Amino acid sequence: MAKKKLAAPGGYRQTSSVIVDPGGSWGGIVAAGDRVRFVDLEGQQAVDFLCYSALDMRDRYNAANTMKMAGNAYLNAGTVLYGEYATKLMKIVASSCPNHDTIGGCCSAEMNYLRYGKRTHSCRANFLHELSKFGMGEPDIVANVNWFMSVPVGRDGHMAISDSPSKPGDYVDVEGLTDVIVVISNCPQKYNPACGYNPTPVRVETYTKTRVARRR
Ligand SMILES: [Zn+2]
User: Fold this and answer.
1) What does the domain layout of the chain look like in residue ranges?
2) Ligand 1 geometric centre to CA of 209 (Å)
3) Per-residue pLDDT of the chain (216 residues; tens, 9 = 90+)
4) How far is the CA of 105 from the centre of ligand 1 (A)?
5) Angle at 27 between CA 24 and CA 31, to 5 degrees
6) How far is ligand 1, taken at its centre, from the CA of residue 213, in Å?
7) What is the pTM of this model?
8) Which of 44, 113, 163, 213 gets the highest tally of CB atoms within 10 A of its CB?
């Protein structure tokens, strides 16, 4: 496991740090200008993610809008996460791992049964658990982001969840561009390479801007 503590982003101080076990979940509010960091402690661990405007929860992450505005199917540092109403919800400000996914979606008990004949815990169940804390539910689950998950698309259109390039200690920093509700599931998937067939813990850290003392 990566033990090394990452430095706080310049001009920010840490406000929380939580380990999320494999199959666990986390939800919180990230205010405009604040940041959330996801650390893949052991590498190759998919973190399923959704965000919603805290001011109007109908304005939630929209994968298609995000890909169209980026001109790219993969999410990297600099990518803005757009909402349903073309609102800039969040921005990836740093990432030590390239090409996060937003087309593979989240695992569910139903899809795991269909594909692998197994009844399992799932990211979909975790999303429902976290969304319930904010008065949301099933209709609020939309196509999501998968941090640290690799879904290459071939020239012939072939796509599949593939081995992640994420190494122990890799991280992604995401900044609120408006006040947002963030929910994540630390994927429990064991039957495809989303988590290297071995789900492992991640760390969620939140940061707020340090106040600059005003000169008189
Ligand atoms: Zn999953």
Assistant:
1) 22-209
2) 32
3) 665 678 999 999 999 999 999 999 999 999 999 999 999 999 999 999 999 999 999 999 999 999 999 999 999 999 999 999 999 999 999 999 999 999 999 999 999 999 999 989 999 999 999 999 999 999 999 999 999 999 999 999 999 999 999 999 999 999 999 999 999 999 999 989 999 999 999 999 999 999 766 666
4) 8
5) 150
6) 44
7) 0.95
8) 44
